[in-house]
Design a protein that fits this description.
The protein is α+β, with helices and mostly antiparallel strands. It has two domains: 172 residues, Ribosomal Protein S5, domain 2, CATH 3.30.230.10; 141 residues, Alpha-Beta Plaits. Helices cover 34% and strands 26% of the residues. Strands 1, 4, 5, 6, 7, 8, 9 and 14 form an eight-stranded mixed β-sheet that branches. A four-stranded antiparallel β-sheet has the order 11-12-10-13. It binds (3R)-3-hydroxy-3-methyl-5-(phosphonooxy)pentanoic acid.
């Protein structure tokens, strides 16, 4: 009744922002998203259902899980118990192989690893597709981390109860690098789970949703054709569009710091003056993800480190999906 899984974080090229209610009142994403799964930024999680436990216990990076994380972990475990017909509580130990306090989201890798480990520890044997609803209980973007390479997550089509996730291309199709310019180690002021609920208050949301079909087609084509210039143009456009929605929500969400803008300008400068192919995208926080090619990653990272306010640059190549491992954490 014990299993250990490993999963990587992911960076979205077309962002998921906003949730609605689907059939059966489950929360579903308002729009499709496309991401690249990351190596280096990975999580290992061991889960064991133990009849002697009085409640679910969870440690993250050798400390007790914070209350909000524990609540989300319990949601996933409760669902697994229901499906497997189990009563026992679980011990969960999770370790992030990247600085959690570095301000890059560990929830995607964390909940992908948790869903796989918990399902197998409970004796469930289905494929990755069956884990999608479990991951979403913890964090929406986690469902994309189940698969490696380039992944599409779509809202339920008419009549379907749950959303769909599929791999567009695997990690061997195209190796890119995500250089994460870390500007802040602070926790997010407004967690994305709350932010998603505010999306509908923005007058710009409709415009974003209306234009997404075109962007999605362009991004999928650019990934298929390994065309970084085309991909970069659209991933930057979508990141700015999502932040425009955030900034015009009520209350307004402003995740950027002055250094965020400084990195954006540095990226443009590297492209225009030095001919280095690199493009920025930003999640629900101040840090900037810079997508580039492996051959240019050292030069781009060196330049990013010189931008005032950049504390560290984390180099994450395209990674594989979630997998089980023999070695357990306890
Ligand atoms: O999965 P969540 O609830 O942490 O939301 C992720 C939201 C963004 O990172 C901003 C966009 C995305 O698609 O990853």
């Amino acid at each position: 009744m014990k299993a250990t899984a490993n999963a990587g974080s992911n960076i979205a090229f077309v962002k998921y922002w906003g949730v609605g209610k689907g059939r059966s009142n489950r929360r579903v994403p308002l729009n499709p998203s496309v991401s690249m799964t990351l190596d280096v930024a990975r999580t290992t999680t061991t889960v064991a259902f133990l009849p002697g436990l009085k409640e679910d216990v969870c440690t993250i990076n050798n400390g007790p899980a914070p209350p909000d994380a524990l609540e989300r972990v319990r949601r996933v475990l409760d669902r697994v118990r229901r499906i497997a017909g189990l009563k026992a509580f679980a011990r969960t130990v999770s370790v992030n192989h990247f600085p959690t306090s570095a301000g890059i989201a560990s929830s995607a890798s964390g909940f992908a690893a948790l869903a796989l480990a918990a399902a197998r520890a409970a004796g469930l044997t289905g494929n990755l597709k069956g884990l999608v609803p479990l991951t979403i209980l913890g964090s929406g973007s986690a469902c994309r981390s189940l698969y490696g390479g380039y992944v599409l997550w779509s809202p339920p089509a008419g009549g379907q109860a749950s959303s769909r996730v599929r791999q567009l291309e695997d990690e061997d199709h195209w190796q890119l690098v995500d250089l994460v310019a870390i500007l802040s180690r602070e926790q997010k002021t407004v967690p994305s789970e709350q932010g998603h609920l505010l999306a509908r208050t923005s007058p710009l949301l409709e415009g974003r949703l209306a234009s997404l079909g075109r962007i999605l087609t362009k991004v999928k084509k650019a990934v298929r054709e390994r065309n970084l210039q085309a991909l970069g143009e659209w991933l930057e456009a979508d990141a700015l569009c999502m932040h425009a929605v955030m900034m015009t929500s009520q209350p307004a969400l402003l995740y950027w710091e002055p250094a965020t803008l400084a990195v954006i300008k540095a990226v443009r400068d590297l492209r225009e003056r030095r001919g280095l192919p690199c493009y920025f995208t930003i999640d629900a926080g101040p840090n900037v993800h810079v997508i580039t090619l492996p051959e240019q990653a050292n030069a781009v990272a060196r330049a990013l480190k010189k931008v005032a306010g950049v504390q560290e640059v984390l180099r994450c190549p395209t990674g594989r999906g979630a997998y089980l491992q023999e070695e357990a954490l306890f």
